[in-house]
Design brief:
Keywords: Elongation factor, GTP-binding, Nucleotide-binding, Protein biosynthesis. One of its GO terms (molecular function) is translation elongation factor activity. Pfam families: EFG_C (PF00679), EFG_III (PF14492), EFG_IV (PF03764), GTP_EFTU (PF00009). This is Elongation factor G. The structure is a single chain. By secondary structure, the chain is of the alpha+beta class. Helices cover about 30% and strands about 30% of the residues. The protein is built from 16 helices and 34 strands. The strands form seven sheets. An eight-stranded mixed β-sheet has the order 2-3-4-1-5-6-12-7, sandwiched between helices. It has a six-stranded antiparallel β-sheet with strand order 17-18-14-13-19-20, covered by helices on one side. Strands 25, 29, 31, 32, 33 and 34 form a six-stranded mixed β-sheet that branches. A hairpin with a 6-residue loop joins strand 22 and strand 23. Helix 2 packs parallel to helix 3, helix 12 crosses helix 13 and helix 14 packs antiparallel against helix 15. The longest helix is centred in the N-terminal third of the chain and has 18 residues. It is elongated, with a radius of gyration of 32 Å. The mean pLDDT is about 90.
Length: about 650
């Protein structure tokens, strides 16, 4: 079986392309994943094929990356509108990082929305590979009625629902065809000395030789050929499928590529797991592509026995099913297989780095509808994070509530639907409580005596403490300067412990940071003093001193790396400034052509707004990662509102 992925932005007709390709020589068999990955099995040219129709939203990019792990080649569908070329930038980035041979298909050419050369020029800004036209459109007025193949120099007129008709190249196209063909041959000659010599000698190379060269350079992933058509009318489908058949590399090339990337012996690389999902009453289903022989139910794969092997189309299991090298199959009761991973008989190997999904930008707390679902929710989210690497599951600081980081609102909505439909857990979501701290603005001293008589042994401890602000980032410090044994040495650790306890909640209701406490005097009682008494005296004394130390609210500030296509860079300074952030600088992204990396300091409370603004300004393409940098003071009405809201939450709880 040969396997390819069809990917690209939403509304570019990917599913229609797959449907038409699968129907060229018979009826295809289709299966779907809850994550939006559709698999279509069909036959073409007496060969078995599997098309992976990857989900279109940028928020599903992790599933696109994983599909490429199992693909010999891919088809990138794009719009014929030059201004929409940037929407393909994330996909070109992933394709080039993966090393997957790619055919670029300009779909919906029946909609006149710009010149093809402008589309290719706009896309070239994001591609390190040369985008090389293999066809040019034939127009009648504003309508595109056919195409001309630049290798065979044959022209075809589209016919609705039928095979295209061979026609003579129209006079209006001849000049453009010669120009485009010369450009094609010039680029191909960069990878073939024979062709270069033919061109230098001004000899016309035969079409068969040119097809062989173009096939080789695609298999070697040297260029990205560009084909055109309109899948909804069946236009250009046969040419696209023939290009895949003759030019896409066999499964052995994928095996070599993955073995090299994973530092695995090619001969031991048996399979790759690339997708998984949970189904009611069935459990975890893992999709696998076989590279070796003998994969059947009970065979050793990934260090344990392979579970039931299922037919993709009907979901039926059979012990007689033995996938051949290249076959894609599903397996259940194979929960030991992580997804994605490279699989040998005895081990699982981490996938290549390029499969790492973008950092999730949307943080939400999931609140179960009933108390009995709380533990179930935690276990279920852990399962789902195993099958969806774009999802990160944490616990909220302070409350322990389930916090999820999702790629965006669509991703979050799909997660909640899966929880409801598959696991019967109803949840609502809310914004997490921002992590604030407090400190003091001025030093103070306190004398605190703890005395308690309970009938038996009493409690007595007397401490004199000085409290001062520490420099930012130093945290809590404790020291002592007592003399003469007024506080015995064995009680001083208890004084420090009490001071640390007092830092857990300051006068504003938040954890206290960057404060230094010094014990400089005190008293003890030979009978009634104890560690507990001194810890209590220290805690109460420090609390009193904090209330006298001019408490200041501290907000978290994060260092953010914002990744965006360069055409959107001009809007970013304004976005960061509006969020009271600070731009630190930007550079070209050395790993992705046409992208910039902005570095900025962003207040923690503005990260949600940054995610929204970034999605809006970049049509959902831009994303950012964050790391905590420091806390800084926050004053005025904004600080007062935060303190009031925190108090109200405390009362509500």
């Amino acid at each position: 079986m040969r396997c390819f992925t069809v990917l690209g932005p939403s509304q570019t007709g990917k599913s229609t392309v797959v449907e038409k390709l699968g129907s060229l020589e018979g009826a295809p068999k289709k299966s779907s994943s809850p994550y939006g990955l559709n698999l279509t099995e069909f036959t073409f040219g007496n060969e078995a094929w599997c098309a992976l129709d990857a989900p279109g939203p940028n928020e599903a990019l992790a599933h696109v990356q994983h599909a490429l792990l199992a693909s010999d080649a891919c088809i990138l569908c794009i719009s014929p509108a030059p201004e929409e070329a940037v929407l393909a930038a994330p996909y070109l980035r992933v394709i080039e990082a993966s090393g997957t041979p790619c055919i670029l298909f300009v779909n919906r050419m029946d909609e006149p929305r710009g010149r093809l050369r402008d589309v290719i020029a706009a896309l070239q800004d994001y591609a390190n590979h040369t985008l090389l036209l293999r066809q040019i459109p034939i127009r009648e007025g504003d309508r595109i009625i056919g195409s001309c193949d630049l290798i065979s120099e044959r022209a075809w007129r589209y016919r609705e629902g039928q095979a295209s008709a061979l026609i003579a190249i129209p006079e209006s196209v001849v000049e453009r065809e010669h120009e485009a063909r010369s450009e094609l041959l010039e680029h191909l000659s960069e990878f073939d000395d024979w062709l270069l010599e033919e061109l230098i000698e001004d000899r016309e190379p035969p079409s068969d030789a040119l097809y062989a060269i173009s096939s080789r350079v695609l298999r070697e992933n040297r260029i990205i050929p560009v084909l055109i058509g309109a899948a909804s009318h069946g236009n250009g489908m046969m040419r696209l499928m023939k290009a895949l058949r003759h030019e896409a590399p066999p499964v052995g090339v994928l095996r070599q590529r993955l073995a090299r990337a994973g530092n695995v012996d090619e001969n031991t690389l048996t399979a790759v797991s690339f997708h998984a999902y949970h189904r009611q009453n069935i459990g975890k289903t893992v999709l696998v592509r076989a590279f070796g022989e003998g994969l059947r139910q009970g065979a050793s794969l990934g260090g344990s026995s392979l579970g039931a092997v299922q037919n993709l189309a009907n979901g039926r299991s059979s012990s007689a099913v033995v996938p051949a090298p290249g076959d894609v199959f599903a397996t259940v009761k194979s929960d030991h297989l992580p997804v994605p991973s490279l699989l040998t008989s005895n081990a699982t190997v981490a996938p290549p780095e390029w499969t790492e999904p973008p950092t999730p930008m949307l943080e939400r707390i999931l609140v179960p509808g009933s108390a009995r679902d709380e533990n179930k929710l935690s276990e279920t989210l852990a399962k789902l994070s195993e099958t969806d690497r774009g999802l990160i599951v944490l616990q909220e600081e302070g409350t322990g509530a389930q916090l999820v980081r999702a790629q965006g609102p669509v991703h979050l909505r799909d997660l909640c639907r899966t929880l409801s439909e598959v696991f019967h857990i109803e949840v609502t979501d809310r914004t997490p409580n921002p992590i604030y701290r407090e400190t003091i603005a001025k030093p103070s001293e306190v004398h605190y005596r703890h005395r308690k008589q309970t009938g038996g042994a009493g409690q007595f401890a007397d401490v004199k403490l000085s409290i001062r602000p520490n420099e930012r980032g130093r945290g809590f410090t404790f020291s002592e300067t007592v003399k003469g044994g007024v506080v015995p040495r064995n009680y001083i650790p208890a004084v420090e412990a009490g001071a640390r306890e007092a830092m857990e909640k300051g006068p504003l209701g938040f954890q206290v940071i960057d404060v230094g406490v010094t014990l400089f005097d005190g008293q003890h009682h030979a009978v009634d003093s104890s560690e507990h008494a001194f810890r209590t005296a220290s805690k109460m004394g420090v609390r009193q001193a904090l209330s006298e130390g001019s408490a200041v609210l501290m907000q978290p500030v994060y260092r953010s790396e914002i990744h965006i296509p360069s055409i959107y860079s001009g809007s970013l300074v304004q976005i960061v400034s509006a969020l009271k952030g600070q731009v630190l600088g930007f550079d070209r992204d050395e790993t992705a052509k046409g992208w910039d990396i902005f570095r900025a300091l962003i207040p923690g409370g503005a990260l949600d707004d940054l995610a929204r603004a970034l999605r809006s300004a970049t049509q959902g393409i831009g994303y950012f990662s964050k790391t905590f940098d420091h806390f800084e003071e926050l004053y005025g009405k904004e600080a007062d509102a935060i303190v009031r809201a925190h108090e109200e939450r405390g009362v509500a709880h």
